[in-house]
Specification:
582 residues, twelve-stranded parallel barrel, mainly beta, single chain, Immunoglobulin-like
Length: 582
Amino acid sequence: MIMPRGLPQMCFTGYSPLRRASARAFIIFTLTLFSLILVSTITPPPACAALVDFDSSGYNRIEIAIDSTPDRLKIIGDAVSIIDSDIPIYENIVITGAWGGSLNSGEVAVSVGNGVTANITLDDVNIATDDSNTCAFLINNYASVDLTLSNTNTLKSGGGRGGLVIAGNSTLTISGTGTLNATGGAIRAGIENGGTINILGGIVKANGGNDGAGIGGGSGGNGGTINISGGTVEANGGYNGAGIGGGGGSGGTGGSGGTINISGGTVTATGGSYGAGIGGGAGIGGGGSGGTINISGGTITATGGSSGGSDIGGGWGGSGGINENGTITITGGSVYPTNNNVNGTKQPTNGPDGTGNPVYMNTLKVGGITSVAEIAACLIDDDSIHYGIKDVKTIVVSGNGYVYFWLPENDSGSVVVRGPNNALYGKFGFGRAPTTASETLALLTNVTSVTGIALNPNQLAMVVGNTSQLSANVEHTNASFPFVRWSSSDPSVATVDEWGGEVTAVAVGIAEIKATSFDGAKTATCEVTVTDPSVPIPPTPTTSATDGSNTICATGAAGGLAAVCAAGGIVTRRKRRRGGNS
């Protein structure tokens, strides 16, 4: 028997069974200890949660700042107390509780410092300040924050400050299953954007103060870049402000919509009196332009202000009317402008990928559906037009379910959609003149279904950044609709072209690419494994454990994120320092 170097050499000859068992137990113990020591030297620390609990901490102001190096963070209380330090940027910082502090003019309750990269969870947070020029939550310049919502959270600022402010060149990405209520003070936005906002999930409700957008610019400010791909968004502009986009300009020109991209989610946007639902703010000196608005999916309801703003497009500019500068591209989604007022006389198009043709609203009643229902697929003009259907649901108006598709002119067009329980509804051979159209999609009977789908290949190994083409052999005998739609179980790992089947590797992981027959009768899958030789394996979160007075926190535990941490304000991977000077 060959023993590991450094372990005692033992001869088992002549040993009793008990002694041999004891010796074996000693060797196993020693090898196990050796392995644990070795692993501890090469394994990164677990990605546990740092907790800031306003219910028990008593701080007026919290700042998350860069520590010794850009990949380490520290949390500072009231500008002097180091609450925690040496926090890896991949670690989740959980903020919870009801803030009960006070702020002087210019101060902020929660501030993310310049250049910080951080993962932050709001878990049942309530920060409301009414004093002038005080702010609930500020993300400073060149910062990047992934914000996860858990339970119900409120951010409300005083006059002159946005409820949640994203400063110039910063990025905020919102996800999760909770709710955020953000309210701006006078002349400021509910969520005020000077950089980029990405909304992936959660419920986001934003209300601007007078002249502030719900999401976008404060008074006279542009909307920045706003990307919505999921979740539920309700945005209401203050007087003259857009629901989503530019701020109003009661003393001058309204702000433009900036760049607004909607590819999914359920979005309801309402402008203030003269502001657009989605687009520009209003202004006495001139209405703000709609900016660049791209809609490729989602269920969107947009309402301009009662005194003249577009539902989608520019704000009202007094005698100058609606500002028709800017562009609107619609290639998907159910897009319902409640006043049928889209950018004045300037018609939206289907963009360069759709040959740049003007598109017009088709009001399509889905026969027999009287409630909100998901539309899983659509087939337009025998699949010659590819129209995005992600997160499309019926909108109920006067007791009937409608979808609002924006389509180019066609003398003999057709639309078929797949609704609940794979029921198909359609209309064939109807003319789409260069104006709005209204049709009823009737329930289709006597549909011949696809009998099978075979994929080639059915497994893929890919490297980040590469693409690969999948093909589907649709098995059928005179099927009514022999088409497939492609989808990915995890677009953050691999995406797929909905109509063509081309797969793009995005990040390390495993995703399932699915081909579904248009009629919903058959599916087939391909497992895609994505690797990146240049990226190390990230640390794995641990479950909760207790070591003396030190509590290790774990996300996903029952009772919410905060429930796994002991009371006392700040508890993380190790025992935290409380108080002390920087």
